[in-house]
Amino acid sequence: MTYNDPVRFELVHVCRQSGARAGLLHTPHGTLETPAFMPVGTQATVKGMSPEELKAIGAGLVLANTYHLWMRPGSDLIREAGGLHRFMNWDRAILTDSGGFQVFSLSDLRHITEDGVGFKSHIDGSRHVLTPEKSMQVQNDLGADIIMAFDECTPWPADHEYALRSLERTTRWLDRCLQAHQRPHDQALFGIVQGSTFADLRQQSAREITAFDLLGNAIGGLIVGEPGDEIRRILEIMIPLLPTGRPRYLMGVGSPDYLLDGTLRGIDLFDCVLPTRMGRNGTVMTSGGRLIVRDAAYARDFKPLDEQCSCYVCRNYTRAYIRHLIKANELFGLRLTSWHNLHFLIDLMRQTRRAILEDRLPDFRQAFFQSYGYPQG
């Protein structure tokens, strides 16, 4: 890795109590303090939030989705607009996923071969094939700072034989992605480790993926239905196998318990649609646990969503008002709950980083779990 690389990870401190890390992720569009949570802007927008509002809550990196932007409006249009940063008016860092998870989620509408995945569009039923080369071409068009290799997201449960075939195909696809990647000077390609919940396969995949010496590595194929204890077990197997000088990204994680437990084990980056999805369902995260603000109990509750929260929503609006908006089907209510949830997770990562720097992360985790109502595992 050289200082000319588009992305550079700087390790700042390792917590003496836990081994968790605080770092700096340098990108072409700014430096991000890690560990960090990435809001998901699937279709080049984080639902209900403007770029200015995201900046106000401290978001430095957002995720956009290759599959959805390829299907609509098309990566050629976004390239013509000057790339995703200009298209969505976001001047901080962007990560694009490969599109693989969405394609594999189409289930009955897709067919996997060595070449790639054939599928029908969820929009109009048109037929397409997503290959490693196509994923790279679309992501090169989009112009994100970090792009993801095309992988097969192994479903859970899967038997050992299937998981082995899947991870080996992922390795072969990574090699093709590297050959097809046209913008290594300004886009960092991350590989993805698979292997389901099998320790030997996770170890094999980690050896194969890290052998490519990429600028970052992701852990995929978790948070797809397996029990929480399995997730923690796999992370403990995986982390020692991933290079310390590269960022580690746990894909699809957004609940506070997994954010803290992932950080405790050495993860640097997380993403999930959970905070905005919960918000659209009238549920918020608070220092005292989840609160379903649409419930009748809050009709005359004039307290903020969370009295310990300093976000714009909690400084200006009450539970009663937000419940009224949601019950009246007013979009502003869902914007406020999403806004609060995103602030909550980004601020949780800020507090977590501070605890790492002060060598007290296990104590911070224990206090947070007790306050939030999580079991003390």
**Averaged pLDDT:** 96
Strand content: 15-25%
Structural class: alpha/beta
Radius of gyration: 20 Å
In angstroms, what separates the terminal alpha carbons?
38 Å
Detailed description of the structure:
Helices cover 40% and strands 19% of the residues. With 377 residues, it is an alpha/beta fold. An eight-stranded parallel beta sheet has the order 4-14-13-12-11-10-6-5. Strands 1-2-3 form a three-stranded antiparallel beta sheet. Strands 7-8-9 form a three-stranded antiparallel beta sheet. A hairpin with a 6-residue loop joins strand 1 and strand 2. Helix 7 runs parallel beside helix 8, helix 10 runs parallel beside helix 14 and helix 13 crosses helix 14. The longest helix has 27 residues. The radius of gyration is 20 Å and the shape is globular. The two termini are 38 Å apart. The relative contact order is 0.13.
List the topology elements:
Blueprint (H helix, E strand, L loop, with lengths): L7 E7 L6 E7 L2 E5 L1 E4 L11 H6 L4 E5 H6 L3 H6 L3 H4 L5 E5 L2 H6 L4 E3 L4 E4 L6 E4 L1 H11 L3 E3 L11 H21 L7 E6 L5 H12 L6 E3 L8 H11 L9 E3 L5 H9 L4 E4 L1 H7 L2 E4 L2 E4 L19 H5 L2 H9 L3 H27 L3 H12 L5
Parallel strand pairs: 4-14, 5-6, 6-10, 10-11, 11-12, 12-13, 13-14
Antiparallel strand pairs: 1-2, 2-3, 7-8, 8-9, 15-16
Descriptive key words:
single chain; 377 residues; alpha/beta; three-stranded antiparallel β-sheet; 16 strands
Summarize the structure in short:
The chain is an alpha/beta fold and 377 residues long. It has helices at 51-56, 66-71, 75-80, 84-87, 100-105, 132-142, 160-180, 199-210, 228-238, 256-264, 274-280, 312-316, 319-327, 331-357, 361-372; strands at 8-14, 21-27, 30-34, 36-39, 61-65, 93-97, 110-112, 117-120, 127-130, 146-148, 188-193, 217-219, 248-250, 269-272, 283-286, 289-292.
